[in-house]
Each structure stands twice: as C-alpha cells, then as structure tokens.
Design goal:
Two copies of one chain form a homodimer. Chain A contains 35 helices and 33 strands. Chain A is an alpha/beta fold. An eight-stranded mixed beta sheet of chain A has the order 14-24-23-16-17-18-19-15. Chain A has an eight-stranded parallel beta barrel with strand order 26-27-28-29-30-31-32-33, surrounded by six helices. At the A-B interface, helix 26, helix 28, helix 29, helix 31 and helix 33 of A face helix 26, helix 28, helix 29, helix 31 and helix 33 of B.
Chain lengths: 887, 887
Amino acid sequence: MAKYVYAFGGNKAEGKAAMKNLLGGKGSNLAEMTNLGVPVPAGLTLTTDVCIYYTNNKKKYPSQLKAEVARQLAVVEKKMGNKFGDKQNPLLLSVRSGARVSMPGMMDTVLNIGLNDTTTQGLIKQTGNERFAYDAYRRFINMYGDVVMGVPHEKFEQQMDKIKTARRVKLDTDLSAVDLKKLSAEYKNLVSRETGVKFPDEPMAQLWGAITAVFGSWDIDRAVTYRKLNKIPDHWGTAANVQAMVFGNMGNDSGTGVAFTRDPSTGEKLFYGEYLLNAQGEDVVAGIRTPQPINKAGKQKGSKAKSMEEEMPTNYRQLVAIYKRLEKHYRDMQDIEFTVEKGKLWMLQTRTGKRTAASAVRCAVEMFREGLIDKKTAVLRVEPDQLDQLLHPMIDPKAKVKDIAKGLPASPGAASGQVVFSAQDAEEWAAAGKKVILVRNETSPEDIGGMNAAQAILTAKGGMTSHAAVVARGMGKCCVAGCGALAINYAKKQLVVGSNMIKEGDVITLEGSSGKVFLGPVPTVTAKLDKNFKTLMSWADSFRKLGVRTNADTPGDSKVARDFGAEGIGLCRTEHMFFEEDRLPWMRKMIMAKDEAERRSALKKLLPIQRRDFVGIFKAMAGLPVTIRLLDPPLHEFVPHEDAEMKRLSREIGIPLATLKAKGESLKELNPMLGHRGCRLSVTYPEILEMQARAIIEAACEVKKAGIRVLPEIMIPLVSHVNEYTYCHERVVQTAKKVMAERKVKVQYMVGTMIELPRAALQAGRIAEGGAEFFSFGTNDLTQTAFGFSRDDAGVFLPEYVDRKILPSDPFQQLDQEGVGELVKIGVERGRKVNKKLKIGICGEHGGDPTSVYFCHRVGLNYVSCSPYRVPIARLAAAHAVLVNKK
Amino acid sequence: MAKYVYAFGGNKAEGKAAMKNLLGGKGSNLAEMTNLGVPVPAGLTLTTDVCIYYTNNKKKYPSQLKAEVARQLAVVEKKMGNKFGDKQNPLLLSVRSGARVSMPGMMDTVLNIGLNDTTTQGLIKQTGNERFAYDAYRRFINMYGDVVMGVPHEKFEQQMDKIKTARRVKLDTDLSAVDLKKLSAEYKNLVSRETGVKFPDEPMAQLWGAITAVFGSWDIDRAVTYRKLNKIPDHWGTAANVQAMVFGNMGNDSGTGVAFTRDPSTGEKLFYGEYLLNAQGEDVVAGIRTPQPINKAGKQKGSKAKSMEEEMPTNYRQLVAIYKRLEKHYRDMQDIEFTVEKGKLWMLQTRTGKRTAASAVRCAVEMFREGLIDKKTAVLRVEPDQLDQLLHPMIDPKAKVKDIAKGLPASPGAASGQVVFSAQDAEEWAAAGKKVILVRNETSPEDIGGMNAAQAILTAKGGMTSHAAVVARGMGKCCVAGCGALAINYAKKQLVVGSNMIKEGDVITLEGSSGKVFLGPVPTVTAKLDKNFKTLMSWADSFRKLGVRTNADTPGDSKVARDFGAEGIGLCRTEHMFFEEDRLPWMRKMIMAKDEAERRSALKKLLPIQRRDFVGIFKAMAGLPVTIRLLDPPLHEFVPHEDAEMKRLSREIGIPLATLKAKGESLKELNPMLGHRGCRLSVTYPEILEMQARAIIEAACEVKKAGIRVLPEIMIPLVSHVNEYTYCHERVVQTAKKVMAERKVKVQYMVGTMIELPRAALQAGRIAEGGAEFFSFGTNDLTQTAFGFSRDDAGVFLPEYVDRKILPSDPFQQLDQEGVGELVKIGVERGRKVNKKLKIGICGEHGGDPTSVYFCHRVGLNYVSCSPYRVPIARLAAAHAVLVNKK
C-alpha cells in the first residue's frame, strides 16, 4: 500500500530533501530542516501521488487517506502541544501547495484553518489579544470563502469598505476588535448568501476543504498556462503541506524576522537581517513598523533601535547556531525566515539567498576557500549574465526614482546627460565639454562620431541588434533602443513621452541594463573588478572548452577586450573604419567613381589608411588570431543623407552635385539588408576586395617584420553560393601571393567565410569543398533571414510577440535554437563532414548571450566572439556549458 | 584487342546510332545514315577510347592505330574512287571532333587535308577550276597552320590584307587564281618563319597532325571550361571523324543545299529548303548569292528563280526518297544538308529540325495521327516554354529591327505605344484613347491602375519577381523589367538610353519574351490556339500527376485562367483588391486609425466590398478550390507617396495632414520585405484577419445558397513559428463558426499556410501539428530569404552573377533546387510526416517555370499555381515531368 502522508516536526521527519518529486520542493525542504534538528512547526505532507490519484479518479481520494491524515494529525498535536479544534488551546493549521519546482503564486494557500467562534475564544485566551484573534478569524473566513468556496475577494472587500465608511476610518488597522468581530459574522453571512451553503465551522471539514482546494488548484487556468509556458508536465502534480501555524505576535516574548547568512550586497561573511518584536511576518515586509537589525553588527551608526541580539539573546544564539548549520548543510548562502512564539524559536523557511553579482563572486570564491564547495560549484554559483553589473555603472539602488519610459535593454550601463537630437550636435556639445545623450529615431553609420561623443544613446525604433544597439555594445556604451513611447520632433528639437515634454539641453538618465529612461540626473554606482573576480574567471577558464574572442574594429577596442580575456578577434568590421573623418571622403569618392579606373585611384588613397588600421589591430592582438571581414554594408550607407553634406562632398571630391545626387539615388535600395552588399560587392567590384586583401597582408608583413606574431583570418561575408566564395577566395589568395613576393615576407593567413544566410548553412559542405578554412556564423543576419525579420524594423512587433508568448524571447537576443539553431547545426555537420578540422565560430551578437553560448558549446563550435564588454560573460558561460553538461 | 577505328560509307558502316558513347554524336549518326542506305561520303571514326588512351598515356596512341587507319583509309579510297595524295584524282579529307554530346565550336576541325603543290594540280584537273583549287589550298594552309601548328589566324589575315592592298581590291573573292597561288606560297613561308618547321607536304603527315590536333583540343581551355559549366565529365573524351571531302562547286552538275522535312514555321507537311547550283555549302549561308528554292512548291509567287526540282530532277527525286526515309527512321522532322558532286548526291548531315511552337505542336499531333510516334512522344515533342509564343504576341520575325536596350524578360508579349512616366498619366492618356507604355524606375501597388491602362510596362530597376513583373504576368501584359541602361528623369519627362533620348509621347516597342526595347513602332504577330494545341494539351493532361492552379485576384483573371485549364486558384492576393478606387480610401482610413475602434469602423466599410470580390471569384471558379491569402504587404504600401495625394486623403477621410504624415512616417521601414507584414499584421491587428475571414465565409455562404459549389482555402502568410500559425488559425475558425451560425449555412473550408521563410520550412512538422491543413510554398519569398536577395534590388547584380556563371540562372526565374529546393523538400517531408494527407502546392512565380515544375513533381507536391498565361506551360511541364521520369 502506498504511503500518502509524510510527517515532519520535532527533530524527525519521514521525508528528506532528495524526495522532492514525491513531497514537492516545500515539503521535502521542511523535512530536511526537521531532520537537521532545526525546530520547524510540525506538519504533514500529502504527496504528489495523492494529487495524481485525485486527478485521475474523478476527484476521489485514496480510501485510506483520511484515516492516515487523522492519525498523523494527532502526532502533530502532540509535538506542538495543542489540539486542532480545541476550545482552550487550539492548534491552527495552514495548507500550502508545493510542486516539484516552484510555481510562485500559481496555486492556492489557506491559513489559520481551525478557527470558528469557539476556537477564536481559545486563541484570545492564549494571546490575550482579542483584536489579533478576530483579525485572524476574519482573514480566515475571507481566504477560505474565496479559495475554497469561490466567493470573489471583491465581495469581502465591499463589506470591509462598508464598515470602514461607517466607522469613518481609512485603514484596516484602524478597525477595533469589535469591528472585526462584527465583520467576521458578516463575512460568514456573505458566504452563505453567495453560495447557499453555511460556512463550515467544523475544523476537520475546514481542513479537507482546504486540502481539496489546494489539489484542485493544480488544474486552474493560470497554473495550466504557467506549466505550458514553463514546460512543466501536467502529470507531476503538486503536494499539499498541512502545517501548524505559529505566531510572532503573542507578546514581548514573541517576534519574527528574516536574515541572510552572508551580506547579499557585498558577499561579506556577516550574519545580516531584520526582525520585529511582537509582530507577524507580514509586518516586516509591509513597512508599517521599521524593522530592527538582527544583531549589533548590523546596526546603523548612532541608531537607537535595539537588535534581536540584545532583546532576545537566547533566541538569537539559537538562531546563529541554526544559520551556521543551514549554510554548512546547504553549502550556500541562505535566506531564512523565523518566528519566535512565546520564547520558542521556529524556522519557517530556508532557501538559497538572492545576491548581487559582487556578492555572488565573493561568496563563491570564499566558500571555496572555506572548503564549503569545490571549484566547479564556485564557478556555477555566478550567473554569467550577472557579470554585466560588474562591468558597467548602474543606477544607485538607493536612489528613489521612477522611470518615465522603458525601451529595450540594448547595451548596459547607466549615464546622465543633456539631450541632443543629432550626431553633429552631439559632437559639437561634447567638444564644448558637455555631457550629452544622443536621442534619435534610429542611428545610421554616419552617426558614429556623435554616438562616440555621447554618454549614451536612446532610440525610438530598432531592436536589440539595430545599428544603435550593436555599435553601442561594441563601444561599451549605455544604450536604450526601440523605446516606442518617444515621439521625437527633430524640427522643434524636442521629444514627448507620455505627459513629459523634453527639450534639447534637458537632462535625462538612461539605464541600459533595464532599458529605463529617467527624467533629470540620477546617481549611478560602478562596481569594481576585484581580485575575487579575477580568481573566479581563471577558474572558469580552466573548465571551458570554447574559445572566446571579441568583435572589435579598433586597436582601442581590441585592447579593452584583451584585458577582459579575449583570445583573439572573431569579427573586425572593416566598414566601421571608413566612417572616420580622414577616410570618409575617399570612400565616397570610390563609391561615386564613374568607372573602375576612378575607383582604383580612390582605393589607392584608402590602402595606406586601412593598412595602418590593421597594423594597429595586429599589434594590439599580438600572437592572437584576428578575423577581418571584408567590406559588408551596401555602399549607400556611406553616401551623405543630408543636402548640406552632399554639397560639401561635391566640393571636396570635385564631382558635380547633380551627378552625386543621381548616383546616390541609383544606390538606394528598397531592402538594403537583402541588397548589393557583402561578397556581392566583391563580385561586382573585385578591386575593393583586392585593396582590402592587400592592406591586410601588407600590414601582416610589416608587423611580422617587427618581430610580432600575426595571424590574420580573412573573412568573406554574405556568401550564399560556393561560386561566390571561390570567386573571392581566389582573388584574395592571388593578392596575398603578390604582396608576399613584393615584400619578401611570408605570413600565415587563412581565408574563410561567414555563414549568415540559410542557403549558406545548407550548402556548408560545398562551401567547405570550395576551400573555406573557417566558418563564422553570423547569427544576426541568419536570424533575420531565417525568420524574415528585419532587425531594424522588428522593434514594432517583436515586443508584442514576446509579451503574447508567440516567441519565448527576442531571437536577436537569445539564439532561436529550434530554427536558426538547426541551420547552425546543419552548417557545422556539413562543413565538418568535408573538413573535420574546419575552425568554426560565431560572431553574431549571440556570442555574448549565455544560453546561446551553451548552445554553441553543445553543437561543437571552436569559439564564440562577442563585444568586448561581454567577453567575461562568455568565458563564464562557456565554463557553465561544460559543467552543466557534465552533471 | 580493342577496336579503335570504325569505317562508314558505301551502304555499310561498322557503327550505329546507339554507339554514341564510343563514336560520338557525329560519328554514330554518320554510321546510322550509311546503314540506312543513304549516300554518305566515306570515312572512319577514331573512337573516344583513342582520345582517352592518348590523354592517359602521355600523348601516345595505341600501337596498332596507325596501321588500322591506313588499312581503313584504303577502303575509303576504294569507296570514293579516288586516292589520298594522288596527283591525278586526289582524295581530300576532313578531320572533325565529335563528342558524346554536342560542344558547338569548342573543339577543332581541319578541312581539305591532302593538298600540296602536287595534289592541287590534280584538283585543278578534276574541277577545271584553278581559282577554286588554289582557294582551297590557301584555306587549308591557313587552317592547318592555325589549328595544328599554332600560328595565329591574324598573321594569315595580315598576309591576305597585304596582297589585297597591293591588288587594290576589297574582298577575298576579288583575288585571282594567280593571287591565291602566290598567297599559298607566302602562307607556307609564314608558317616556316613562325614555327621554324617546314609546312608538311606529305598528306599522311598532314592527316596525323590534324587527328592529333583534334584529340588535343579536348583539353584546351575553352573546352575544359565548357565541360565544367555543362557538367560534362572530362573522361568522356571525343571521337575524331576522318571523312572524304565532297565539293558542290565542281560545275553545273554540282550543287549544295539545306532542307527541312516539314515546314519549321507552321509544321505543314511540306518538303522545304534552299539550294545553290555549283556552289559550296558556305555559299548558301553566306548570302553572297541568293539561294534558290528546293522545289516548285517552295517558289515565291512570280519568282523566276529555278528550283532544284527543275534544274536537277534526278538528284531531287533521290533527295525526296532520302528525306522520307530519314524522317521515317528518326520519327521526327529533320534538318538535312546535302551536296551534289558531279551528278552524285551526298548527304552530309541530318539532325532534328528546330521549329516554332506552332510547328512543334502541329508536327507532334500530325505525326501521332500518321502513326509515326506515340502520344507520349508527341507530348514530349513540344517544349513547355515554347508555348509562350502561342499565348502572346511576338515581334514579327520578318521585321528588320535592332533593339536599343535589353532588360529582363519579365512578362511575355509585345506591344507598341507612347511613353508616359507616371501611372496617372497612363490612365489619363489611355482614357483619351491613346496606347501608352508606362516607363518607371520601379512600380508600386498604387500604380496598378496605370499598369492596367498601359499596353506594356518598362522598368529600370527590379528583377523577375519585382512588383512590375509579377503584376504584369498576372495581367498577361508585356513587361520588360530591370533595364539598367535607362536613365529616367521624371521631372523632365524624358529618358536617355545610350545615345537615344526619348520624350513623353514618343513611341517605343517592347518584346517581353526577350526583354528587348525598340525605338518606334514595330509590327507584331499573334499565333492562334488552334485545335492541334487543344488536342496536345488534353494528351498532356492525361499524363500529368500534378494539379495546375492559377494565381488570380479578380473574377476576370480567374475566368482567363480557367479557360487555359486552371483547376483552381492557388493564390488569391487579397491586397490587390484594396487598391481599387472605391476601397483605397477605406483601407487608408483603417491604416491611419488611431485605435482599434476606429480601425474596426473602417474595416466594417471594407467588409461588404471584400465579400463582393470573393463572391465574384467563387462564382468564376465554381466547383474548384480557391486559396485566399490574408493581407500580406506592409501597411505602408497603401499610404500615398506624393504630397498632393496625401492632401486629398486628408480631405477625404478627415484626418489632419500633419497627423497623416506622421503616421505615414512611422510606418516606413528600412527593409519592408522583412518588416511588419504577413501574419505579423494579424497578430498585432487581429481585427483585420477577422474582417477578411468573415468576408470569405460570408461570401462562401452566399454562393453556396445560390447552389454553387464553393471550396475556400484560407491561407496565412509569412509564418515563421507555429505559435503565429495557431494564433491566426484559431481566430479564423472562431470567426467562421460565428458566421456560419449567423447565416445558418455550413460551408467546407480549409485553413493552411504559406511556407515562405526558411524557418517555416524547417519547422514544417510543428506547423502541421499546429493544425495547418495545407501548405503552399511561397518560393519568391523563400528565395529572397534563403539567398538574402531582395527581388527588388537584386537586378543590380543578378545579371552579372548569371553572366559570370556564379549562379546557373536567375533563382527568381528558375527555382534554385540545390538550396531553396532543399528547404522545399525538408518542408514537404516534415509536414507529411505529421499529416500524410497534407495538401501541398507552390504559388511562387516558379509554378510556371518548367524546370521548377519538374522539381515540384519530383518532391511530391499536389499542385503548382502560376499566373493565368502560364497555366498551359505548367500543364505541359507537369506531363513532361511524368514522362521524362518514366524514361
């Protein structure tokens, strides 16, 4: 015969932590604490099997269940020293759900079971507090009436409002014991009226009503939906925990509190918490009374508040012994809840404590040093995404501010500054020593200068991989993108958001990690990369298999990334180099050339500039591989958008304005993302590719001559057909041969390709046959084309897609493993089938997203590449990928 | 021991047609003719094995080869009655290559082998024509010197020019026998000078030099490249044919000609050809003398030219007997070449005759009736693409015109008209009774009216599936797209193309099937769909397995397509309905709505209009399925582009101009192809989907009540994730239930989806699980996203891609079977795995392209859908797919 009921309490429990599937998370944890000798209010857990039986058998319980509960309940009474339904000293019970995994707030709970007109008198006797007893009673009727008997909560509220109006008071707490007694009676009438059934006074009937409601709540709509979304199987069921109630408000020998076994902000090894004398748990949270510190160490300087250590020294000592035991047992920092009832300490809960990144890192490193955990566990204790907090300023958590709008968390950090509406203004204001925030509908490559000059960037359109977002992340600069609530008027230089109107020069603050926008300046704080951080990262590195590279376009970025631990450059976007002052005119002249000869003459001017760029990058990455992508964007991006700019260009390069405009017009595309770009440019203008290949190899020769090891990897973008690849590959190789012969230096280099189009993924085998020595998955473009989503335009509907759960997350943030991921897998398999040594990486924005990094590890990539500020995140995620897979 | 040499001539050959792999196409066919008793100049074929041996053995021949050739050559001499190298009556030989498949012009040929100073005297004796003999001699030295000895042809030309200058003549034919004799000597000196080797006089040495050159030419660059491009294996090798020369210019008992066994223009059963008395084959082609008709039936009325039938009655009778034998033997219309040498008829070649579509259809049907071929063969005799000629006007082949520009053959047909530069002008001019050609950089949906009013459309940008191309094909209207040579100036209302300037009102002519643009009017001709055509199509229908539907948006189009044999509508694009005068303002009001309520009120106005459209289409397609795609394009397409239009709209719908403009601006997208469109619109504005579903089901109820069978299939566009599909599917089903309850009619309907994104193809299984009852592959968008090519922008580089053989063909014209095709295959497999009855079709433009149709058949689709005018092509292609697969 199956055992359906597991008792706990009084130093002994029938269950344990390992029985989570049968007893649920809550039940098994209560059992575990009990067995540890921690004083836990006694109770019993009805197993998940009961729930399953109930569901499968037309809402009937196993025949022996009632008897078993009754028998075990007697044990609880004995352990607690009171009696369920007793007139003098009544035991009150709670019934709580508890599934295998936490489903917060999804299922039902009933407290204070066992109260009726008679037992309430017993409670008064025990507590000497009539108001408390009737308050408990009316809360019970409300909760039971709602949860078990289906009377809507509003109906009770209406009754409450009526009595408050009559008494001319505003708060529930202003009502007297008499009022509450009256209210209890009215509540019971309300239930009878609404349901046609008398409110049950018999405690055992109440208990079974509550148990049935809790099991039944496994199948209410919100729980079913939650399970569907979180992929929790319906057949798991929930357990039900019947537990003795304890009260911290039974006088000055009672109290309640919460505490952390270490400092959740800093990780310091310090018992840290708050408590209230003669109070219930909810009073600590509600903020009506100011909680007192739990110990002397936690007291604010000069504070007169007494600590628990001083007021309840015995219970405090018991608590310290218990927290130490718990931390040692669970081998992690614990967040505990306790109540002292008439001098007796009860532990109500212990769970892993939430903590800041800094705290997580310190706890992990110190717990390893204390011998509490091993290195693997230490590494797994810090969530990769958390590290962002350490790498960027944040809004000071103590600042009391409310955001005025929320956009996408495009690039982390926080910054305040004066609003400007154009890149040019940003540059001018910044040159004049002002801190500015650049606000645009969207940004384009010619805004680079202004973006660089600004403290942060705010855009109304565009998603997580829009131009603004990608560039800002590369710069490590705060950016909030796709903030649809903004209505920007460039002409008037103002923006309206809700009821706020913001003019040029007004100060705003952005927080990039949350996407929040604040009015005025807001203080920010920056965490430090301390020794603990470095230690933890070195442990992570010792576990991970995936290489971690960075996406960097300048020697400066390369340096930052290298300091963060990047092992090479996975993506150097040469086009970003062309937007700088000294080269843009030549780039434009090249684009505007009327024939190949003119184009070649402009390219000749660009050659030494590019070479210089590469020399700088090769030196910064000495000894590490550098993947350089050949020119990728459509040429139109380099053409000036404004008339004045066009005129200046016409003067600068000596081409008539009308000709320039006509040429600019002819370059415009309806869908530039799918237009004349990537290797298509190299096919139609092979001279551009030749110039770039020459600049790379010349730079490599120069650097090698200087005695520095250089490993260039030349990457051909946007290949869809092997013939495009071989066309470009051959020209690169020819150019390289020529340059090396001229310079009399031999450098090692590789030629490979981006896999960023679905067709390329499918044809990866043929492309490998075509000679590609490495692949780099461009998952930004691959996501765009697999889904048919323009990253610049999807901001209009993607948030709604995520809200409505049509997509689990923004696929530009987290790699869509099911769809885009299958293309990656196919690409890897087919590429490696031809060349099993094929070096394969990823250089889309996903390279810095932990779940995407796990995926990259699983499918066997050699490395991920991400923006410099995400390199530590990727390193840690890569370690997690190994350790979690091992488990 | 392998047999390396096969003789033919004198009624007996050692080879036959079936030995093509060993003897090559030419050699096996010469053998076949010989065996048929047709008089063929005798010769011998050196097999492809010799070529392979030669290649694999360091350019050595098999040891026994020389002896075998010498032995067989003696037989040839006996058969021809002259002798190789003879002073009196020399046999001259040709050596020609001949691979398994034709590689026109890729390999070498040497004629007149055996001439030297001595044998030339013999030739003079035989012909009595000294000039002819020396002309043959100098041609031989030139050809041999070039092909065998590697002296560039220009060098010979320079000698020739020198002598012409000296003689003050312009043409080769003006040189005398003496001149040519001198030239021959100079040519021989030239060869010695250039090569340091004496020109070989010994005929046998000449022969082996020529044979070696021919075998060697298998591996020259152009041949290797040609094989690579046409996927011909290198190891096939070529045969070499050594054949006796015959001359038609040996006097008035000699002549030469070409003929067709039936009329290649009409297919009439009539022997048809041209000949010249006392002439060489090249004279017929060169056009120096006007050829004479071959028989009296072929004489132009009133012509005085004598026919062969009159001038050489005996040889003519022999020729008639031979052509009949050949046609009967080959069971197809033959294109034959013959020469009469001194009263003796020789057949030089017979091959399948090229013919017009009309001729192909008539020949096929009549040959079946004559018992010459079976029905399957008849159906296979007509190339599906050829039918286009029958369905559209063409430029009169007799018109002597030169095109001024060439664009993409976007939609077939031909038309002349006056140039206009805006859709509005097109409508106004057409209303005034003028025939106009609409010329634009590109067209957009608001140009529909003007496109409809125009005779034809010419665009400077855009590819085969650009808006202009797709709409024009749907209308069966001629269109030339992506004609990059045009420089259009809208302001001045003129266009420049090369040195021509064309103003508004000037007449031009377009030919859509070739993409050519002509200045001025050009006469056109239209073929008729006669009884033979209908017969052939009915045979095709009896074989094919694939269904053929049409893409049609109006009752008119539906009717046309049904007349062409469409078995349903595979794609009805509802958005095209919204551009008409009476509904565009409501559509725009709906788009400009500030909230859902306003949107719903505009939709209410659109509902009855849409319902009426569907009623019309359902009636036109009574009893056949109609697939209706829900609104697909981004809303911005419906917003006016011009200021004046915007103002008018503001007045019409009573929304302030500034508000309209701001809204219009906010709808603009950087990449509208990947933007807020397709089912994404239905997710964010479900009320649009509900209106359309309601209109469809209401219309279906109405039509069913009228006693007409109706089979609507509601298609959800641009699905990438199953959740999008189910979101829309559920709303369609709910709406349909509601409508049927209201109307008290039950109609059968299906709900399904387009598979037009790579992710959808990969996730086809899940989408089928999500309830999709049918799939329709939207291969236009699938091609765009798989390749990352915008069909509107790819016109800039795609032609170059095809020219450089980077792509075998424009993937928007012919389905890319390797890449896009794999996605289709994956989609079919995964969809059918879940639901093996899943109905699957294709509705991209590829549905009307024969090779794409073959592919659709192979992967097991249920139907293809194409524009009305391509329905017959698809029907025939679907039959070929079955018949060719069977072979």
